[in-house]
Hints:
Helix content is 9%, strand content 48%. By secondary structure, it is mainly beta. The protein is globular and about 55 Å long.
Amino acid sequence: MGHGRRAIIWAVAAVGLAGAARAPAVARGAAPLKPVFARTVALTPVSGVVLIRVPTSRFGFVRLYNGPTIVPLGTLVDTTAGTVRLTSANPSGRTQTGRFFRGIFRIEQPRSAGGLVNLVLRDNLKRSVCAAPARAAAVKRRILGLLRGTAKGRFRTTGRFAAATVRGTDWGVRDRCDGTLIVVRTGVVVVRDFRLHKSVIVRAGQRYLAKAP
């Protein structure tokens, strides 16, 4: 059995036991498991409560204990009440790490993207809450989903109307009724506006709103 497939199987086993016992992600005496490019990542809870749901799970979200735990791409991570450290591998086997919190996201790493990890926001509220009179400014700014992160390496966070690719940064993405808002606290972010089909450089202290149609 290949290393990548074995990592996925062990991770699913650890997740399945998480609700009943704090099972280690690595068998005793075995070498530490590492993320495999375009197949798996390593997740470690840093603070609070972090929940995960692997793609084939029939049990919904389970709590992530201790770590690191190897999970397959496509895993959903709920950090609305905690912070998670995510480590991924690039094509050469070297790793990169970021911390993410305050949101729910799905993990992607396309093989053709050269190691880029894409975190796709999952909204906490349905867009039906946006169906209010146009004059209601508070409704326009209502947050449907968000995610904050601090990372160095190749990470991208994707909302409904824009994606933010980081360059060693502390940043946040908010899906709102009126669009996707990118807020940069440190570093530089390249924002891709899906509606306008253009890229914008956003620096520390700046924000950019990719407006909804």
